[in-house]
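1st attempt posting a full record on here, be nice pls
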Amino acid sequence: MEFIKTPKVENVRLVEQNTRNSIEGTLYLTASHLIFIDTFKNETWLVHTHIHSIDKPSMVQGGCALKLRCKTFQVLVFFISQERDCHDLYSSLLKLSKPETVEDLYAFSFNPRSTQLQQQEGWDLFTLNNHFLQMGLPTRYWKISRINNEFGLCETYPKVLCVPSLATPALMMGSAAFRSKRRLPVLSYLHKNGAVIVRCSQPMAGLNSRSIEDEAYVDLIRRSKAGNQDFMYIVDTRPMINAVANRAQGKGYENTDFYENIKYLFLGIDNIHVMRTSLNKLLEACEDTSCTMSNWLEAVNSSGWLRHVHNVLQVSRFIAQAVEVEGRSVLVHCSDGWDRTAQTCALASIMLNSHYRTIDGFLGIVQKEWLHFGHKFTDRCGHIDGDSREMSPVFTQFIDAVWQLMRLYPSAFQFNETLLFDLHDHVFSCQFGTFLGNCAKERQEYSLPARTYSLWGWMMKRHESYTNPLYKANVEQQESLFPPTTPHFVRFWVKMYNRHNKGLLPRQDISPSVTNFNSITEGLKNKVMELKRQKQQLQV
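the predicted structure (as tokens):
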């Protein structure tokens, strides 16, 4: 509250995004939200942590402008009559939108009614141990290890790991010592044919370094399948030039002279800095309403965003096909194994297993690949005041890639766009404790289950609103999804990046009509079955 200089400003005009229409009202500033109430008593609420940037242009006719760009792709422009009030709001929002510590975030003060959500709800929904059990682990070749129970092996990994059954503690410690951030290879996905997806970080190979333990450990992964594989893939998701540059810093990639029976592939997903710049260019195109159609298409294309989404999907497709079609195990890494690795391992799992295309399964794979295995949400999402170069829309890009699959296979997913919107927006809202912190160890140190509420508990109460009416369960041909390789199948997601521009969106949601149609169809099918039964009885 000490940052709030002016809690209430009257006679404020809000200009609608991409229009010249405006409406007058009163602006309120609280410890967690900016609230605008217009003359018709309509309320616009904006949680401070959704604010990405704040601009205060020069004075214009009608007042001083305050322009807010949000992480949900909303743009709000307020015109305030008094320059002093505008400056006070500007300085207050700069502080409120970038708290100094994680414990200053909204989640630690959010307190819903107990009838809406209990604090313990959702925290134990997607435990890693249960996830491994659902995959049929442990097996003859894979065991569940608690060697990291005190985070002594790797600080950014979870307490529970799945590793080759023949891996000794000494071998695991040696492999961890040779990997960036000590993120040794651990199981991500076990296919029914015995092939696996394993994730890790880059080796500390430098120009000539090697690790006998890491080489033996990787070979154990290759041999951890019935009818031992003659080779396995190592997929480096980075462009080759990036990996080569890392060798000069003592890192790099596996030397095929030392790692036997592997095929090494660089698959060229660009780094976090390229992705950050790409999304910024895309949003600039979305915000510019004065350009012609050809100029807009050129701006979207030159942003590179759709090409990057396509690349992520293609790498994931290669991993999935290698596992299912070839029956090959795949070891996946990028630099530190928490950005591109999380994207591709999660997407490959979704392509391979229909369970991850259900509501519970999808949220479970997000919990496992992104939360348990340490994606840096605090840094990448800019939850607190820090190094802006660490921010990057890695998770946004993953959500976009999932939507591309949903659009291609509309009956294969149990959930709809609304789930993706809520998930994306609440990663940034910091209203719940689920996505706070950079790894499991940090979340334990903050005692989040005891001090904050779980997003999973909140979302489980909205199960019905997330259901896709076109979903068909247990359809054999949809067991595995392999998206096309041609680039033109990737589309610009209007309802994500322009969803606050009402003029571009459909005026009516067709979901209720589709649900009603499905209900009528199901009733008719049941009636046909009943008539057939009656016919058989008459014939007897």
